[in-house]
Amino acid sequence: MPAPPRLSPRTLGIGAAVVTVLVWTAFIVIARASAARSLTPFDLALARICGASLVLVPWGAWMVMKDLRQDGTTASSLFGLSPLSLRVTASAGIFGGVAYAALAYSGFFFAPAGHASVLMPGSLPLWTTLLAALVLRDRITPGRAFGLALIVAGDLVVGGRSLLHALEGGEVWKGDLLFMSAAFCWACYSVVARRHGLDAVRATIAITVFALLTYVPVYSLLVAGGAVASRIGSAPWGEVAFQMLFQGVGSVVISGITFTKMIQYFGPVRSTMITALVPGLSAFGAVIWLDEPLHWNLMAGLLLVTAGILFGVQKSAGARNAPMPKVPATAMGRRDA
Hints:
Blueprint: H1 9-34, H2 41-71, H3 86-107, H4 113-135, H5 142-164, H6 172-196, H7 200-224, H8 237-275, H9 277-289, H10 296-315
Helix pairs in contact: 1-8, 1-9, 2-3, 2-7, 2-8, 3-6, 3-7, 4-5, 4-6, 4-9, 4-10, 5-6, 5-10, 8-10, 9-10
């Protein structure tokens, strides 16, 4: 029988970019829609962690055993489920596994998806650049500084209005702050991953294992003691299964792999430009599917943030225009922000 046709690297790269943008966009719209249904934000975080664990925990155990067979040594931790050392697993897992999920899902219960579209993808480059400058001693070029200034202006245009109305009893500002805090936690995870040179697959497995072994027991104890409300027991099982499938397998596993493939083909610069589509697509998706109004400040903030991302990336393209090299299977890797 003839061998099945193999897809070209270009086809794989384009397909990975499409899947990544669609999943990231759907994450914002679906998470906001979920806030009006049965589950609490901590229930959603649990569904995300458990759904991803069904795939990544066996994968991590297999990876650790494979390393042991090949090299005889491994930097594994957490009962041989994480392919990274305990110190790296914990530092990455706190920010990228536990804190990000809890803060992001909580934000959707206060603020609309349009705000998340601007504030989460928009403030991520800001926090990442500032943390990289402080921790990794990266230089902020004038072009990138101008791009960051546009991002800050866009965030203020969107979030500043809700902060001004905070004294009037509104709660949107709480969601805005939670979105920016979630982006800060993901930026911390990105800097940790970059500092240790982590591979995307190994890092994703490690933060999922850490979240499974820390968040789930703490969540269970708090729910049992009445300190945290949970509706996961009374929610329709179809909704719980969907959240585990999309939030866990889709948002964590699939988008993690496709994001890595996109980086390998397009390089970090062009990949950042592609993901700059997410704020606009998710904002308009919220207008179409969630009937959210598109106020002038949201539109202005969206334009400023998107321009800031694109401008900052283009100005630094000369220094970072080469595609990211593939990481060997036995090396420790990272997910680039």
